[in-house]
Amino acid sequence: MSLLKTQDLNVFYGDLQSLTGVGIDVEKGELTTIVGANAAGKSTLINTISGILRQRTGTITFEDRSIEHLPPHQRVAIGIIQIPEGRLLFPDMSVVENLELGAFTPRARGMRKQNMEKVFTILPLLQERRNQRAGSLSGGEQQMCAIGRGLMAMPTLLILDEPSLGLAPIIVQEMFETIQNINHEGTTVLLVEQNVQFALEIADHGFVLENGHITLKGKGSELLQNEQLKKAYLGI
Asked: Which domains does the chain have, with CATH numbers?
């Protein structure tokens, strides 16, 4: 069953068209990835889903409800939570304080204690660092803190924008395992990522975005075997 569906999205920056006729489906309970090169339109797509950008034409439905008229904070309230590229933590606040800021919607606020315990179970490193300034964490630890903050909001759909950016390879692998575990715990995940190999290895389904167009789609394992994708992104 589709949790999120976009149809024929056309998005512009002024007169410059960034997305052309983009349609994706995110199935409930699955991990879906959008892969592509820099400037392909990946962040534009998820920012449009989150309401940060508005499409000129096209539709977005979430849980069979049209949401393109909703502002970003109302999309958050219905469970669409985006973890932005670059993490955007509050560096002078502690890990716990950053996590608590994720629980600002009414339903999440009432479950703050329980959700904090859940985050510490999924991301035990954050419990060890709970009183440490977020700005003093390593890049990988900051990314985990950003993911934890997103989980505090009780997402129905968790969107991650380039979570591996700037991280060492061994940390990237750990982070993808964490994202996969979050999905296995029942959270639907939409992952935007340049690391095509890792992203498709853990994804149920994937979409390849090139120059604002969806050029390939299918199961993650099948896309990894696609000759066109191998040549373009995997150097094979």
From this structure: 1-79+190-236 (3.40.50.300)
